[in-house]
Write a structure and sequence with these properties.
The chain has helices spanning 22-33, 75-79, 81-84, 131-138, 143-165, 227-232, and strands at 3-13, 43-44, 51-52, 59-64, 67-73, 90-93, 96-99, 102-126, 176-188, 191-205, 222-224. The chain has 241 residues and is of the alpha+beta class. It is globular, with a radius of gyration of 18 Å. Mean pLDDT is 90; it is low at 234-241.
Length: 241
């Protein structure tokens, strides 16, 4: 079966932010490295007017236990050197200046591939909808139809992730949502979006910490261990990475 060794760096900074400051943290990093480095923001600023680049974000910005994080995947591992090479790490977050310092840096390589069994995951703060498919979801009367509709969207989001890391999925992804753990309305850019925490299975080994779906570059759609593992605090290894 086709597999791709996927490199991920998770960089946690000592600085403190609030969850709603992730976009300001992102803006501070972009201004520090320069807008010419488009993997940090996924916009083509040479176009008139600048255009969004529709691709999986290989550099992602996140809030984690009060600290800002950068998650760099595949080519993003090389691109983050644009930050490391700066003579100083002073950035603006909103109306204040912060001197960045690293709390933790974790580099790992994971084989992403299809497997012959189902692997368990949780997806946190997942944004499945655009304006069109939200209206289609709203008119579905039965829960089973809603779950199947979400499974189709999640399959598409996982295929977009696969394309972004250079993984050619040769056979069908068998995505099943086991439960919706939580759903709530969250602010996203200049609007409100419906987000989900879900437990799901799929016949693939996927990397924890990767962002899946809309808003992945801004901390949405965090791929994690299933809910029961998080609640019980168990260290059971659910993936053979």
């Amino acid at each position: 079966m086709n597999k791709v060794t996927t490199r991920i760096i998770v960089i946690t900074f000592n600085n403190k932010i609030q969850p709603w400051e992730v976009p300001q943290f992102r803006g501070g990093i972009i201004n520090k490295v320069g807008i010419e480095h488009d993997w940090f923001h996924n916009h083509n600023n040479q176009a008139e007017p600048p255009k969004f680049l529709y691709r999986y974000p290989l550099i992602q910005y996140r809030y984690h236990n009060g600290n800002p994080q950068l998650i760099c995947i595949q080519n993003g591992v090389e691109e983050v050197q644009q930050l490391f090479s700066q003579s100083d790490w002073e950035i603006r977050i909103g109306d204040r200046t912060e001197q960045l310092s690293i709390k933790d840096l974790n580099l790992k390589a994971i084989d992403v591939e299809l497997v012959n069994h189902l692997c368990n995951y949780q997806l946190q703060h997942w944004l499945p909808f655009n304006s069109q498919n939200l209206e289609r979801y709203k008119v579905l009367e039965y829960e089973i139809d809603r779950i199947q509709f979400l499974e189709k969207i999640l399959t598409g989001h996982l295929l977009a992730f696969a394309a972004g890391i250079g993984w050619q999925v040769e056979n069908k992804l068998n995505v099943r949502i086991k439960r919706i753990v939580k759903q709530k309305i969250v602010p996203y850019k200049y609007t409100k979006m419906l987000s989900f925490n879900i437990d799901f299975t799929v016949n693939a080994k996927l990397p924890f910490q990767a962002g899946i779906g809309q808003g992945a570059s801004r901390g949405f759609g965090l791929l994690n261990v299933p809910t029961n593992v998080l609640k019980n605090g168990r260290n059971k290894k659910l993936q053979e990475n």
